[in-house]
Design goal:
globular; alpha/beta; four-stranded parallel β-sheet; two-stranded parallel sheet; 122 residues; 6 strands
């Protein structure tokens, strides 16, 4: 399955974990191109600051990854879903993609035939 990881850049370690684990399970995984912050969010951590123009480009590239995927996995630690991630979820649903969650939301879970350690619901 081709899967795009979606979620806040604050969850960078989880992106790396899910990418590696899903790839080892045989999936093609698309992730964020970079883990940056917009200028109004700068200083919260050591992530690089990206321009508004770069943010638009990176968002469009990520939407293209979703378009080329079978599903998205929303990394929503603490059930956090921000504006950009909400938009990605809506885009995925508009394109008929499956939406799975790291933490249970709505009744969407990781596919039943996935290895037990890949269950999205806790």
């Amino acid at each position: 399955m081709r899967i795009t990881l979606c979620g806040s850049t604050r969850f960078e370690p989880l992106f790396h974990m899910w990418s590696a684990d899903l790839a080892r399970a045989g999936h093609t995984v698309y992730s964020l191109s970079m883990f940056g912050r917009q200028a109004d969010d700068a200083g919260r951590d050591d992530k690089p600051v990206i321009s508004d123009d770069d943010k638009v480009t990176l968002d469009l590239v990520h939407l293209d990854k979703i378009l080329n995927s079978d599903a998205i996995l929303v990394i929503n630690e603490g059930r956090h879903v921000g504006f950009s991630t909400s938009r990605e979820i809506r885009w995925a649903r508009m394109q008929g993609k499956s939406v799975f969650w790291q933490e249970h939301q709505h009744d969407n879970r990781w596919p039943a035939d996935a290895p037990a350690n890949f269950l999205v619901s806790k």
